Amino acid sequence: MTFLATYAAGRDLRAAIRVASVLLFTGLTAAAAQITIPLPFTPVPFTLQPMVVLLGGAVMGARLGMSAQVLYLAAGIAGLPVFAASPVLPQGALRLLGPTGGYLMSYPFAAFVTGWLAERGWDRRYVTSIVAMACGLAVVFSLGLIWLAFVAKPAAGFSAALRTGLYPFLAADLLKLFIAAAVMPAIWRLVGHRDSAD
């Protein structure tokens, strides 16, 4: 069971807690998009979104984590200013057709993969939490790079996609992953201590 399922178990407001959690992580993903560092040599900005996507999957599980990211994309497609601010990339549905489209469209799948592993207890220990989130991050980079290489800029090729869409971000994203992976075991330990105190 995920942390959310464990927390909501036996409570009268289970459905409301699930809906609120999905809305919370949708909002957190949108907020993380606003913390953006544009890089001059790539159209892909540095954001905190992958960290939030992976945490959402770990906390809520596969289906709810995926739902939060689908809702986030739907809000962006509808024209709400939830995507990262950019002087060259448009808001709205056209953002998904641009160079960052593959990364954005990967978020539901990355949350699902991380959540699926969390449902099997991978988020309860630091090492397995790292592996679960690394699997989700691999989905983000895989779909992002495939889109960048073969759809957004097919003339540039895959090596150019690696130079602009992977190498500049890998070290920072791994650091974010190690931080995010530490959150879930800490929360589980905290909940365990509270349960034993009760």
Can you put this structure into words, describing what you see?
The chain is an all-alpha fold and 198 residues long. The chain has one domain (3-197): Orthogonal Bundle (Arp2/3 complex 21 kDa subunit ARPC3), CATH 1.10.1760.20. The chain contains eight helices and no strands. It has helices at residues 3-8, 14-34, 49-60, 62-77, 101-119, 126-152, 158-165, 167-197. The chain is globular.
Number of distinct beta strands: 0
> What is Rg?
17 Å
For the record, the count of structural domains works out to 1
Listing every helix as H and every strand as E from the N terminus to the C terminus, the arrangement reads HHHHHHHH
Q: What is the overall silhouette?
A: globular
The biggest beta sheet reads: none
As a percent range, the share of strand residues is under 5%
CATH class: Mainly Alpha
Unreliable residue runs = none
> Which fold does the CATH topology refer to?
Arp2/3 complex 21 kDa subunit ARPC3
On the 0 to 100 scale, the average pLDDT is: 89
- Please report the distance between the alpha carbons of the first and last residues: 21 Å
